[in-house]
Amino acid sequence: MEATGVTLDHEELFHLALQASSKGDHDKAIRYLKEGLAISPSAKFYYILGAQHAEIGMYERAVEEMAKALELDNTMDTARFQLGLLKMTMNDVEGARDTWSLLDEKGEGEPLRLFKAAILEAASGDFVKALDIAQQGIDANNENPALNVDMNNLIERWKTGLETDAGSVGSAEVVDSE
Fold first, then answer.
1. How far does CA 38 lie from the centroid of its chain?
2. What is the pLDDT of residues 8-25, one digit of tens each?
3. Cα distance between residue 21 and residue 26, in whole Å
4. How confident is the model at residue 49 (pLDDT cuts 50, 70, 90)?
């Protein structure tokens, strides 16, 4: 964005995108992220861009961008988790399971591993087990409060599913956890 002939650098664009995202200004966030990607592709830019596209319902594009983030940084576990959530949202349980398989290498008490296990249990119809595992993940997650909010929302849906015996997994929204 060149208002005065001065070009913003990569980090400035990233922080401006995060600020716009936190205000719900997806248009501005996406513009900053795309400008930053034009300067230098990076996993964190693709990850946040994917989250923005998921927020506005462009799931196919979000999947591509999360996958690109993982291509650039295979250790980005939050992107891996969010990519699995996107696949679950799109009713691709096997795709989510495959995406999440590397999370099994994490410690047993690691929140992302617990959250994915809870979601897969719910998808198989075992809401009681899903609720227990999800709560363990929330209790263990001190680093990403926004993800705990989303998991608590899923827990409420699962409880409703138990009460009504409707038995379906609600879709989860992608969280900007950067």
1. 23
2. 999 999 999 999 999 999
3. 6
4. very high
